[in-house]
Specification:
Distance between the termini of chain A: 38 Å
Shape of chain B: globular
Distance between the termini of chain B: 27 Å
Protein name (chain A): Nitrate ABC transporter permease
InterPro entries (chain A): MetI-like, MetI-like_sf
CATH topology of chain B: MetI-like fold
Organism (chain A): Prauserella muralis
Membrane topology (chain A): Multi-pass membrane protein
Radius of gyration of chain A: 22 Å
Structural class of chain B: mainly alpha
Shape of chain A: globular
CATH superfamily of chain B: MetI-like
Number of domains of chain A: 1
Strand content of chain A: under 5%
Order of helices and strands of chain A: HHHHHHHHHH
CATH class of chain A: Mainly Alpha
Keywords (chain A): Cell membrane, Membrane, Transmembrane, Transmembrane helix, Transport
CATH architecture of chain A: Orthogonal Bundle
Helix content of chain B: over 70%
Helix content of chain A: over 70%
Oligomer: heterodimer
Largest sheet of chain A: none
Chain lengths: 269, 256
Amino acid sequence: MRPVTGFLQRWSLFFGAVVLWELAARLAEDPFFPPPTTILQTAGQLWFSGPAGHLLLTGSVFNDILPSLGRVFGGWLIAVLVGVGLGTFLGRSKTGMDYVGPLFAFMRAVPPPTLVPVFLVLFSIGTPMKLATIVFGSVWPILLNTVDGVRSVSTTQRETAESFRTPKAYWVTMVVLPAALPKIFAGLRLSLSLALILMVVSEMVGATDGIGYQLIFAQQRFDFPAMWAWIVLLGVLGYGLNALLLAVERRMLDWQPTRGAARAQTTGA
Amino acid sequence: MRPIYRNLAGLIAFLGVWEAAVRLGLINDQYVPPASVVLTRTVELLGQEDFLRDVIASMLAWAIAMLAAIGIAVPAGLLLGSLPGLRTATTAIVEFLRPIPSVALIPLAILVIGGGPESKIALAIYASVWPILYNTIYAFTEIDPLLIDTARSCGAKRGRVLASVALPHAAPFVFTGIRMSAAVALILVVSTEFIAGASTGIGRFILDATSGGGRMDLVLAGTIVAGLLGYLVNDGLERLGGRLFRWHAATTTEAV
């Protein structure tokens, strides 16, 4: 019985809100706010009415959703490699952050969408421009958290490793990075949600396909159910990606004694 | 060498590499003008009344959004943090609303609210509510029961425990949330101005510079000003937090 009541506690208010929205939207008949059932129907037509050979998926799934997801993951992976690599190097160096710290703090504060025009002329319209936007916007949380994490290696750990004459490569991969992992994961989740946002932004400004393009296109031809369907899809994607990364984090950080300290905040910007 | 000199050396080296890369023709100067040109343009802009008006419009929208977000998120966080039943019931809604990228709501906001300043303020509020709400709830669930029990056994009533134990414990976490939100809200205000084409603001200025013949020097100058504002806001709040909560470690250990 316990799982059932737990499930009810967790989801009853959510479903109640959806039903309320449905009723309110049907009563108000406001064109801007279609009822959830209409949005679901539109979503079904948009994505799941394709031929059986394609598992019922429509062309939109292959031409818009998959390229967008590819950009998010591609850009994010580059940001992870650059962020963790550079962050480990800077965190281990005594003076490195003194040279670049203020510069990075400034760059993190730059609103990435305003750099889209610059990336647009540098890389022209296409995937490299979107990747550049995503990498530039999402690399900072990973980089700065990695620096922080690498510096959090305790003196005991360092002295133990030193007294065993641990080889350098072994020291970095087996001691420093695992110790930094909770902080790194906090940065990873923040930057994954940023990558999703920047994918949408870069596709809104300069693209001919992708989720962001379809979203703004649906708005421009006043197709409100379709616009809502894309918004809901982005919500589901954001939720799913975050849940996926959380599951990975739980598995990888099982051995950490103080899991509470690593809980980081993510933003929905 | 003192750290401040290293800071300066890093900045100068970055500007030098930028300048050299453009002057040597590695980057087309039509696309990215040299650092010296962009910096001169930035200084010029800061003396122009029209541009300063744009800056004030953006900062005003930011300030209103921050006040509203704090006004919504802190009481909501206190409520959800102290009532576990309500928190479980609303988790699904919060977890579904939070990851919706606020930029995805830009088209909707333009339609429903219009292209005025209300749109960017509403979107900035939406984006900045979550970090504050999260940190407030988190602070309340992580409070050491020993502290509460001690206060209780000293005869403190529920209201007294809240005022003297729970709130001081939560304050540094809430402040960290506010600091994170401040950066998010500023980025969102400028982005909305840029994407939705507001009537005034830094984002609008950059949009005009882009569409009006691709003046990349102005685009970069505007971006630098936006970045500087964000940097100053974050730095100022960090210092304020360090001063207010010197007795607490959360301000220094919290990431990002």
